[in-house]
Structure formats: C-alpha cells, structure tokens
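As agreed, record copied across for absentees:
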Amino acid sequence: MNAYETINDILVHLFNEIWKREEEAIITEEYKNITNNDMHIIEAIGLGEENTMSVVAKKLGITAGSLTTAVNSLVNKKYVVRKRSEQDRRVVYVRLTEKGRKAYHHHAEFHRQMTKAVIEKLDETEIPILLKTLEGLAEFFRGYEAKSKK
C-alpha cells in the first residue's frame, strides 16, 4: 500500500474506531443509562455556570429541537438542570448537576488518555507536524460543511 492509500485507509476507519472505543471506555456500569451522544451533550454544556440551549445546539451543530429531546432525557436522569430566563422566557439555560459534572470529568479523562497515547509516540519535532496535519484536516471538514450548506 502506498502512502496515499494508507492515509486514506486510516482516515476512513479512524472515526468509527474512535467512536466505538470511546463508547466502550465511557459507557461504564455507572453511566450505562446514557449514550455516547449524551456524553457529548454533557461535554458541550460544559462546567460553566450556565449555557443557553441555543449556544449548546450551535456547538453541537444540531437543531434546538433535537437538543431539547436529548436534554429532556438528561434532566430526567439527573445529569442536567434546565431553567428559563426570568428576563426573557424564550431563553432556556442548562447546566450540569453534580452527577453531570462527574460524567463530564469521566469523559474528559478518556480524551486525555487518547491524546496522551498519541503524543507519547512523537518526539518534540514531530508534534508541530501532527498539529499542522490535524489543522489541515479540520479545515477540510469545516470547508466541506460550509459547501454542503450552500
């Protein structure tokens, strides 16, 4: 296999592999009542005091309606609390409960371990090359998304 074919093969399979391994690592006995998607919503809500539903939906690239369905489930499972703005009743704030914060840290630990595993394989001169490569890949996906919305 030449370099192009090898890179293509890795890219094609890497996303699904990460998703599968992440789910295996983070959906433990303690978190068996939520999904990998739920964990990413928890991550998008973040550790700050409050975020609006529209900000979280935008971070995730989903509609407010889709987020509402997922947040309803997370509220019922006590990972998230929701509160309407007293100034503007159309604005809804969400924040993580203590249980949600614990799940956030659990998920972040998987990401820390994954990133560490990559960096440990590189010497100091290779890290900037990896960063440049990943930035190029991210740029491609952002450009692809922008083209598909036209």
